[in-house]
Amino acid sequence: MGRRPTGGAPGTPDAPLPTKEELRRFLAAHPGKLGKTEIVRHFGLSVDQRPALRALLAELKEDGSLLPAGRRGVSAGVAERPGRLPEMAVIEVTGTDPDGDPIARPLGWKPESQGRMPVIYMRPEPAGQAALAPGERVLARLKPIGGGKYEGRTVKRIGAAGPARLLGVYEEGRLIPTDRRHKAEWAVPPGEEGGAAPGEIVLAEPLPGRSPLGLRPARIVERLGRMGEARSVSLICIHAHGIPEIFPAEAVQEAARAWGVSPQGREDLRDIPLVTIDGEDARDFDDAVWAAPEGSGWRVIVAIADVAHYVRPGSALDREAWARGNSVYFPDRVVPMLPEALSNGWCSLRPGEPRGCLFVEMRFDAGGGKTSHRFGRGLMTSVARLTYEQAQAAREAGEDPAGPPAGTLAALYGAFRSLLAARERRGTLELDLPERRVRLGPDGEVLAVEPRARLDSHRLIEEFMVAANVAAAEELERLGQPCLYRVHDRPADRKLEGLRQFLDAFGLSLPASDRLRPADFAHLLERVQGRPEERLVHETVLRSQSQAAYDPENIGHFGLALARYAHFTSPIRRYADLLVHRALVRGLTLGGDGLAEAEAARFPETGEHITRTERRAAAAERDAIDRYLAAFMSHRIGEVFEARISGVTRFGLFVTVEANGASGILPLASLPDDRWTEDQARHALSGQRTGLTFTLGQAVEARLVEANPRTGGMVFHLMQGIPAPKRGTRGAKAGPAKAGTAGAGSRARR
């Protein structure tokens, strides 16, 4: 879907309303105050469109993209103002300082182009007004107080998504926040406990005034469960990150009415021995694969569950799937995008059960180059459900696994080798940063946290999925259909400059920005393989990269070195894939449930929305693993661990334990007495008197002094000349108990 045109004669009835991004660019290009008349004239809008423009401007004010200027004007927001913050800005409260006063951040700040995020200390609200709570947004008057810090005073409360809520653990008249950014406790006055008992996880709302002890008061409005129960960690993360958990009754009823698909109008694939290969803990299977040699090359079929058949545009299921954006995976549960009747039922490619699918048939030459592809709507039956471990073990033993016909696995691996050769030729960015796997016992206790194995069977499925995703983007372009691309921009110039300064210390370099390719990063990582700084370089390169996003404007996928890429392979758990399926159905006239015009018109907003929900899910999943790790490590206080420095700041270091990935802060006060200065370019902290320097990736010994499962926070002290009481370098080994694992990884995020 192309960018909408701008300009035109004022009042033209068919002039399209500008997108948010077009408005942001126009405002940024015209510094200072702009009135609505100038905006209407530039975009050629009619009188009838002014209410819609006012609504759009109100949304941009709320997200900080623009600010009020005078009585009727607006100006570019924080994101378009490099350097210092303006005198007035929209800010969001993120936590509290030790005195209980709010700390905030400016909305729209872009660290990659504007530098370190400023900290805003908000002045207390006037007597009788409710305290500002985390998540609230206000228009604030700002005054710089030095060191990238500001003092803020509330001008107008904008609000948040619903009433401001506090998540914490209730303890005898007090609320202890579960977010480590919130330093202060809250008082719960008599009669405001809401029936909560000590140790319960609760949601509360701020009350006006102060308690006799000086704490901010709050009222408990919802009880969620007890701290320490098996599901308490993921429960905290779900509510802390605002993950929708309960499906509306109408959506559940729609899913319950679902039934199998008819063969009419579908290509019959039931004689093709398609197999699913997933993690051992997977509950839904939305992709199946098959391959066979063809001449010197390969014929490959990737079949994907036909979610578009069940989730129609404008339905209750569709509205809820859009709102969620994606499924969220925790070590003990999944919060699905679709109700279980679909996600674990009719849209799950269970072995031996006929299922509707959208498929792509691809042909590759011996070197992995694609020679053709064809999409269709089919009826298939999976012949086997294999785990990654089963497929890998069978391949290494030279045997055929139970279920699929002989030779099925050999053909899959043969096609994979060709695709892998093509990937290596184009030079993709691959960082050696293993995922963490949390293994839980039957009662929810953490048995171990360990690196997740990276097998060839994982890479096989990934290569097949990447090929199918590329084919989907190519097909939609051929058909002239709108496409919601998966885009990944090249690193920002500011980050590249910092990376080059860092690499220069090791005698390493990168080409100029206008000639930079993913293969250059691959060659860089090859050069440091086996060297002491290998881990450090991997981590620093990762920090330099942009984040992937969804957008109808194609800029390619830098990390995969692909000119076009769209998510097609997981419509059970990603809304973007469902839209790609609908666009294919419409473009290939495969049914009446294809993409609607209204949906296509909303692609820019939908892309922004599901990018936010994906990042929300990733943050919640990381948060859960951190809290599980803190629970696991809380029994090992006082032990000394082999660790590496994973963050350098002016207030201390962050360290990550080698054995299990547990991370925590190493405060500046725990370092040897000295005057410490931060070198941002080198990611280093240096002592002026001792001559000691700590750099990102450096190996250290750290003693665990605090681990808080409630917040997921951990504190370490550096073992600088202190005899180690006992070593804690081994991860606990799990017994035979059945374990749950986190299920979101690179396959879900690419």
Which helices and strands, and how do they pair?
Layout: H1 20-28, H2 36-43, H3 50-62, E1 66-69, E2 73-76, E3 88-96, E4 102-106, H4 111-114, E5 119-122, E6 137-146, E7 149-159, E8 166-171, E9 174-177, E10 186-187, E11 200-206, E12 216-226, H5 232-240, H6 249-256, E13 267-268, E14 275-278, E15 287-294, E16 297-305, H7 316-324, E17 328-330, E18 333-335, H8 340-346, E19 355-364, E20 370-380, E21 384-387, H9 388-397, H10 408-426, E22 436-440, E23 446-451, H11 456-479, E24 485-487, H12 493-504, H13 518-527, H14 534-544, E25 549-551, H15 575-587, H16 597-601, H17 603-633, E26 640-649, E27 652-657, E28 663-667, E29 676-679, E30 684-687, E31 693-695, E32 699-708, E33 713-718, H18 746-749
Parallel strand pairs: 5-7, 10-12, 13-20, 14-21
Antiparallel strand pairs: 1-2, 3-4, 3-6, 4-5, 6-7, 8-9, 8-11, 9-10, 11-12, 15-16, 16-19, 17-18, 19-20, 22-23, 24-25, 26-27, 26-32, 27-28, 29-30, 30-31, 32-33
Helix pairs in contact: 5-17, 6-7, 10-11, 11-15, 12-14
Keywords:
alpha+beta; 750 residues; OB fold (Dihydrolipoamide Acetyltransferase, E2P); 33 strands; Arc Repressor Mutant, subunit A; five-stranded mixed beta barrel; single chain; disordered C terminus
Please provide a written account of the structure.
The model is unreliable at 1-14, 721-727 and 729-749 (pLDDT under 50). The chain has six domains: 20-76, Arc Repressor Mutant, subunit A (Orthogonal Bundle); 79-159, OB fold (Dihydrolipoamide Acetyltransferase, E2P) (Beta Barrel); 166-227, Beta Barrel (OB fold (Dihydrolipoamide Acetyltransferase, E2P)); 249-480, no CATH class; 493-545, no CATH class; 640-718, Nucleic acid-binding proteins (OB fold (Dihydrolipoamide Acetyltransferase, E2P), Beta Barrel), CATH 2.40.50. It has 750 residues and is α+β, with helices and mostly antiparallel strands. The chain is 27% helix and 26% strand. Strand 22 (436-440) and strand 23 (446-451) form a beta hairpin.
